[in-house]
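Bumping with the actual sequence this time:
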Amino acid sequence: MRPRRRGKTFAARVKPFWMPIAVVAALAATGIGFGVTWPGFRPQAIYVSGNHVVTRAEIVARAGISPRESIWLQNARAIRLRIEAIPYVASAAVHRRVPASVSIVVTERAPYAVLRSGEDSAVADHSLRVLAVADGSETLPVFVLPPGIVLVPGVFVTLPAAAALRKAQDALADKGILPASLGFDRFGGLVVELRGGVRVLLGSQSDLESKLALVKPILAQVVGEQRRVAAIDLRAPGTPVVVYR
């Protein structure tokens, strides 16, 4: 039997062309290296959009884009992360445009509540990221937290009590109830103060939906006497109690 002839391997086929391939690769690498370092690719314009609270100047400063380095050599992810470190920025997208411009699109966070811990107060968004120190002019609901919580702009408040108050606030908003503040009594029961001064004692957050469903009907029944109402006790929703001053 004649031995079966084997076809040439890929390496054997391209071996005669190795030298031209190497020359072309070297020329391509040189061209790419020259292109990305060409002075014409140094950023000439930075466009910022999506910002309403944070100034363009702050975003550009935090971006840290070097004016002397090609935009194609600068790390877009690092630029994005630096911008997202601004407390009010939820997300940022960085786009490089030929030949020498950068477009930054930001999405800002929306104030949700004022967090109060002892003598410190700060504005936070729904994720409980601290946006800024409160100045007292806010009309947001106040979350009363234990003292000693760090409320520095940029940090996330991960305290379970804060998350519980956020859950309660979302439930109140679904019922169309506007609270002035939310906190806990000494037994850990949820207490909501409505705008107007009426306190709603809710106790544990179990069966919260059914408890909140009673608030508006009870207020409607005492509409002419609300100034005299000090509290509505819904800790036992089957037997609600109206407490007068």
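The tokens above came from a reply further down the thread. The chain has two domains: 1-108, 113-244.
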